Amino acid sequence: MPVTKEEFIKYLSDTASRETSYHNHKETIAWAAILLYFFLVVEVVKGICSRPALATGIIVGATIVVLCVLSIQYRLRKDAANLIGACFWLIARYLPEDDAVLQNLDLSVSPLQKEEKTKSPKCSYRPTGHYPFVLPKVLLETMEKTIEIGHGPRIFLEWISYLLVIVSAIISVIIIWW
After folding, report:
1. Which of 47, 102, 131, 153 has its CA 20 to 30 A from that of 169?
2. Over the stretch 60-103, which tens digit does the pLDDT of each residue have?
3. Alpha-helical regions (H) of the chain
4. How far apart are CA 27 and CA 45, in angstroms?
5. What average pLDDT does the chain have?
6. pLDDT tens digit string along 149-164?
7. What is the spatial distance between Cα 159 and Cα 136, in angstroms, rounded to a whole number?
8. Using a CB cutoff of 8 Å and minimum separation of 24, what contacts does 4-8 make?
9. 25-50 b/e (C-beta count within 10 Å ≥ 16 → b)
C-alpha cells in the first residue's frame, strides 16, 4: 500500500512529539540523579564524619553510580535528539513534494531480533535500544546525517553536570578528612 505525503508527515510529526517527551524525561532523570546525589552527600558529611573511611567509601560509590546513570541518560537523550532532528529534517524535505516522491523511500524496518553489533552497509548509524527495530530505514539514515549537528549546547550541559558531581565529591572528601 503506497504511503501518502499526509500519512508520512503525520507519522514524522507524531514520532517527533513522542521523542520530545522522551528526550525531556531523560534530562529530568539526569538532573534528579544529581539532586539526590547532593542530598546523599550532605547527609553523609553531616552524619558519618566521625568515620571518614566509611563516609569516603559511600561518597565514592555514589559518585560512580551517579556518573554511570548520567552517562546512560545522556546517551539516550542524544539518540532522541537525533531522531527529533531527523523527523524535522524529513518533514522539511518532503513537505513541498508530491506523493510520488515518497515511493522511492525505504520505509522498511529491521526485523525484531536480538540486537547485533554488525552494521548495515546502507546505514552505519545504529543507535542503541529499540530504535533500529521500530524505525523506518529512511529515518535511521537521516539520524546518521544529524548525529553531530546542533549538539554543542547539549554537550556543554553534560560536562557541567559531570563536573558538578565530581567537584562536589572532591569537596566532600576534603571536608570529611580535614
Report:
1. 153
2. 999 999 999 999 999 888 888 889 999 999 999 988 888 888 88
3. 5-47, 52-94, 131-134, 137-145, 152-177
4. 27
5. 83
6. 777 788 888 999 999 9
7. 32
8. 4/99, 4/102, 5/94, 5/95, 5/97, 5/98, 5/99, 5/102, 8/90, 8/94, 8/102, 8/105
9. ebbebbeebbeebeebbeebbeebee
